[in-house]
Amino acid sequence: MRIVRFSPGPNSGLGTDPLFGLLEEDGTNISVIAGDPIYAGMSKTGAVTQLSDVRLLAPVIPRSKVVCIGKNYADHAAEMGSDVPSEPIIFLKPNTSVIGPNDTIVWPAMSERVDHEAELAIVIGRICKDVPRERVNDVIFGYTVANDVTARDLQKKDGQWSRAKGFDTFCPLGPWIDTDFIPGTQRITASVNNESKQDARLNQMIFGVPEIIQFVSQVMTLLPGDVILTGTPAGIGALQPQGTVTVAIEGLGELTNRVSARG
Ligand code: MG
User: Fold this and answer.
1) For residue range 1-27, what is the model confidence (pLDDT) as tens digits?
2) Chain centroid to CA 14: how far?
3) How far is the CA of 69 from the centre of ligand 1 (A)?
């Protein structure tokens, strides 16, 4: 199933508040769901609208946290001048950094260089702690596409990453949550102004989804709606002011965002 969150069209009769919906198999019709399916289940209200009539929003708004894995592809660790880590490196992005498809990444005045990082995102469906790797599917709600936007100059300057990774708008997510996606050898790509920059396969991750959830949940309790970004492959590079950036994962979806003028 593909779950979207959206602002209804002005003539839909569905009001003005954001809604959740199920994107039907035809890829066109959206069946409205009563409440947030992560907390309230998947009951349809009977209302139907069309994908072309709505504005998609981030499919999940984490109430608690976005956990990120650093240097999880060997070729990316190499381009950063780092060794392959022996255990996952984790950091956090604030939930206030989340934006949705087609929203604008705002270039902060503090930074000269803002980069894209194409990543697979895991959406957690239930509260959990110390999840064994063979049980991770019990706690995964689904997957979406993410861009771990990073002020690269500030990352180097600060020595830790809270500022560089934490600006408002620095965590685009979408276009939907796919509850049936199974990570394997799918292609993950990023392009800037339609020019290819990152092109890898999900099975090039050093730590796979089971290891990541096991590790992170040994550190912190995971809550429904938490999101885990699984790291980016080689090919990171700068966004272009007033340009666009697209992250795509084969079989999952494509996430495009505009970029503001330099701050
Ligand atoms: Mg990253």
Assistant:
1) 999 999 999 988 999 999 999 999 999
2) 27
3) 6
